[in-house]
Amino acid sequence: MQVTTEKIDNHKVTMTLEVPQEEVAKAIEKAYHKLASQVNIPGFRKGKAPRKVLEARVGKDAILDEAFEILATPAYSKALQDERIDPIGRPEVEVVNLKEGEALVFKATVVAKPEVVLGQYKGLVVEKPSVSVTDEEVDSSIDSLRNRQAKMVVMEDTALNNGDFAIIDFTGYVDGEAFAGGEGKGYPLEIGSGSFIPGFEEQLIGAKAGDERDVTVTFPTEYHAADLAGKEAVFKVKINDVKRKEIPALDDEFVKDASEFSTVEELKADTRKKLEQAAEQKVEHEYFDAVLQVALDNMTVDIPELMVEERVNHMIEDLEANLSSRGLQLDKYMEYMKTDLAALRSSYRTSALDNVKTDLLLDAVAKEEDIEVTPAEVEKEIAIMAERYQTPFEQVSKIMMQPDRIATLVNSIARKKASQLIIDHAEAKKAEASETETKETAE
Fold first, then answer.
1. In contact, 23 and 70? CB cutoff 8 Å
2. Of the CATH numbers 3.30.56.10, 3.20.20.80, 3.10.50.40, 3.40.50.880, which one belongs to the domain with range 151-246?
3. How many CB atoms within 10 Å of residue 300?
4. Which value, to the nearest 10 degrees, does the dihedral of the CA atoms of residues 16, 21, 26, 31 take?
5. Which helix or strand (DSSP H or E) is residue 249 part of?
6. Which has more confidence, 434 or 275?
7. 46, 84, 180, 330: which is deepest, by most CB within 10 A?
8. Reduced to 3 states, what is the DSSP secondary structure of residue 168?
9. In terms of C-beta density within 10 A (0-12 exposed, 13-18 middle, 19 or more buried), how is residue 365 classed?
């Protein structure tokens, strides 16, 4: 097979493939037998009709088209391998010559994976912030626990204030007519929460249980119900009860009731430890991102738009699958979020571009460092997935070892190893600098 390659632009390549006549003849023979076994021809058993009879039945072009399908895929795959082209997406195929007794000639135009020029990715210097947790942060965390343990107490003859809960009945009117969705019974409204239309809660401040008030508000112009948007409404409100949170005192008795500890000091020590662990994880994550960003900034690559568009497609598909798992539809979601598909795709574009660029970096590092993925690493990754989804290992393994999935899994593991290599070298550089600084100080 002969292949000639023509570069169309920075990303697009056209390969012209010529398959010898001998191979075309064999493919035509295979195509004839395949179609003969599929087509019912009166007077002949399947697969036994002479070729001329079959051609009269289905047409000669049908046999040639089938022969092309037999030849094109392996020829295209071999051409990619020989020309060292890593394609993105499906090729645009143009048949130049497909005739019996002649060589097959066809063109395949593809967008090629871009060449990555790696800059420095080893020994990158990035400052890692120190982790500290203040007393105020510990107290705030414990206050949140106290708030979760708070009890609602009915306040007799007490005026509503910010932070109180009003148990209300209400009916809303626009132009003197009650409107759909504007009525509620025994609704617990926290004053100051901003959960109702702006101005509603403020007009209840000072009311007591048993009071009735007319609350006048104006619906926002961007209100989700178009028939109410921008309109003035009057709500007739009755306050049934006034309730207030009773927050428990911070003492040993509260600690025993609300936690596994016995004293306030034990609770504070554990809270500090957990906050420090969370802070360390956050710092590690930010440090990892910062190191990777330096490697990305040092890299040179011209990314084809097709790669970004395909990544956006995957992100939309993931969103749709996630919504579907919760019984929601993408169209309804976009309607609720007041957006459309074009705007949604646009909002994903920056993230998609960053993801593509990161993948290209890690693929290039994996290639440069000759990173290999072992069967044991694949098995470990499948075990992690099985545990995450609480599914038997054998079941997950059977799915992931399919030809269309295993390559993706191996590639993912290789990228993880490449990213860890970048981080390890940055950590080693940091340790080296720290050791040098210590020696200089000692001298």
1. no
2. 3.10.50.40
3. 10
4. 60
5. none
6. 275
7. 330
8. strand
9. buried
Q: Is the pLDDT of residue 442 over 70?
A: no
pLDDT tens readout for residues 166-191: 999 999 999 999 998 899 999 999 99
Residue range(s) occupied by CATH 3.10.50.40 in the chain: 151-246
Q: Residue 306 class from Cβ within 10 Å (0-12 exposed, 13-18 middle, 19+ buried)?
A: middle
What 3-state DSSP class applies to 192?
A: coil
Which residues contact residue 382 at a Cβ distance below 8 angstroms, ignoring those fewer than 6 apart? 393, 396, 397, 400, 409
The CATH number given to 272-442 is 1.10.3120.10
Residue 55 CA to residue 43 CA, distance in Å, equals: 15
CB burial string 108-146: b at 16+ within 10 A, e below: bbbbbbbebebeebeebebeeeeeebeeeebeebbeebe
166, amino acid identity: A
State the Cα–Cα distance between residues 260 and 254, nearest whole angstrom: 11
pTM of the model: 0.74
For β-strands 165-174 and 177-190, DSSP reports them as antiparallel
Six-digit token string for 105: 């000639």
pLDDT in tens, 252-297: 999 999 999 999 999 999 999 999 999 999 999 999 999 999 999 9
CA 153 and chain centroid, separation: 44
Residue 251's pLDDT is 94
- Contact assessment for residue 260 and residue 172, using Cβ atoms and an 8 Å cutoff: no
- Joined together, the tokens standing for residue 32 give 């004839």
Q: How many Cα neighbours within 13 Å face the side chain of 89?
A: 20
362, burial (CB in 10 Å: exposed 0-12, middle 13-18, buried 19+): buried
Q: Which amino acid, 305?
A: E
CA-to-CA distance for 110 and 88, rounded, in angstroms? 7
Amino acid at 193: S
CA distance 258 to 247: 12
Q: How crowded is the C-beta side of 44, counted as CA atoms within 13 Å?
A: 16
